[in-house]
Amino acid sequence: MRIPSRVIGGVLVATLLTQLTACGTLFYPDRRGQIEGKIDPVVAALDAIGILFYVIPGLIAFGIDFATGAIYYPGGTTAQVDPAKLKPAIDADGKVDNAKLQAILESELGQRLPLNDPRLIQHRGSVEQLAAYGLVPAA
């Protein structure tokens, strides 16, 4: 009875270790939060290996990597827009109109950004940051 329990334990440990290494979220935590981009073939291959050996955990790894955005290559580019050009996107209450903001960013940067994507993480600025740009904070 001792050998079958060691085999089962070994298989369980191997399963858990391969799933921990097959998730791009663990390999590339800095990529989390991306919405789209080119798929990293290394992460996709590791997730596919998870599907090959263990169907359910492999599908979960793919799902997590797509949901967090860790499966995509990092963008690596940054852009800046003059805050004065962004003022038309802010209404009198201090709220941002995503459609106007998207149009301004598209004309300034030449790229279409998916601001209406439900996975987009929005951060609120502090009162000091808003005052530096001459904006009135909304209640």
TrEMBL record:
The chain crosses the membrane at residues 42-64. It comes from the Bacteria. Keywords: Membrane, Transmembrane, Transmembrane helix. This is Polyribonucleotide nucleotidyltransferase. It comes from Pseudomonas urmiensis.
